[in-house]
Fold this sequence. Notes:
Layout: E1 35-40, E2 43-48, H1 52-55, E3 61-65, E4 67-69, E5 73-77, E6 83-93, H2 98-102, E7 107-115, E8 124-128, E9 137-146, E10 149-157, H3 163-170, H4 187-190, E11 198-201, H5 213-221, E12 225-231, E13 254-259, H6 260-268, E14 274-277, H7 279-296, E15 307-309, H8 313-316, H9 323-337, E16 341-346, E17 361-365, H10 372-381, H11 384-394, E18 405-409
Helix pairs in contact: 6-9, 7-9
Amino acid sequence: MVPQHPRQLAISDFTYTLPTDRIAQFPLENRDQSKLLLYKNNRLADNQFRDLPDVLPPQSMLVFNDTRVVQARLRFQKSTGGLIELFCLEPLEPAREVQQAMQQTFSVVWKCLVGNNKRWREGRLEMPLGPFPQDGTLWAERLAPAEEGYAIHFTWSPGHLTFAEILEKAGLLPLPPYMNRDAETSDQERYQTVYAAERGAVAAPTAGLHFTPQILENLQAKGHQLGFVTLHVGAGTFKPVKAELMEYHYMHGEQLSVSRDRVTQLLRHLGKPVIAVGTTSMRTLESLYWLGAALSMGLLPLEDEELVLPQWAPYETKSNLSVQEALEAILTYLDHRNLSHLQATTRILIAPGYTFKLCTGLVTNFHQPQSTLLLLVAALIGPSWQKVYRHALANNYRFLSYGDSSLLLP
Length: 410
């Protein structure tokens, strides 16, 4: 029996044995060569990913996360020879919204993880932006501890460059920690989706890595709709659950951006299948309902600078609103403020006990044991997640970011 409230879930109930040789270290030669495990009507079927347009429910709307991974790892070498690595997590000043922060010039303050922190006792770090002095310089100064990291003040010359351009020149692509290797040249292309647009993620929305322009074209030819939202994937997506009960796990926040047009498209599609491409797209779509409900009930002030959806909101907010009413509340909010996009931070945890509002299916890779992503899968298909993962292990599916895919239709 699933507890009534996910606070009482024991993470030890959501585990399996994942041999290290099943973790895909590199992508396949072609994106759509990967396997696709179809779960439908409690039955399993093995397919190729290129079969996706044919096995989807008719008239599906697929919702993709168009975030773009930034080169968020910065390696500074001290004059003494020691290496200090800064991993940019999220902006603090002068703008907290990721896309706005990426366009800042001259200086920014970001929360960062600091590798070899003990070797950085004082002073600022310095890194050349190219082989010649005229190419410029990046400096980093540690300010104060921040939640799970430090506030780091970055300045650079020439100052007209944006922070996005600085990361492009000076940064390294942040591959997941379980790959245990540095990024190679091929990762620059393959660890991005073909539709990546909005810079700001520190991890790829990996379910989208299987898609090619041809598959996107085939989907539309089959009568399926495509929609794009943005959720900037944070390092918290890899954060292990160390607490025995989920009540004591602090869920990471991620910034989302959804256009008015996308909300309207979802309204027009009510009653037809909505398939999230990846857990991040699902988290964004389900957050829309709860943001709309909170706005409708006055729980999120209209003049607040930043909308934040708390971790347990779906389980502790009493809402009888329909999906239509919740989406219409978002449109009213956008009209009230003359905005084209809804910007918010979501901390919601989707786990067994959750009732889905917008999503009727999910395209996703195979996730780590005892992870919040596995909890989301279990919320969608119940105890059958064990059957799905046993089948994938027994039939040589590749796991995690560069691994194979599944289409889950409860």
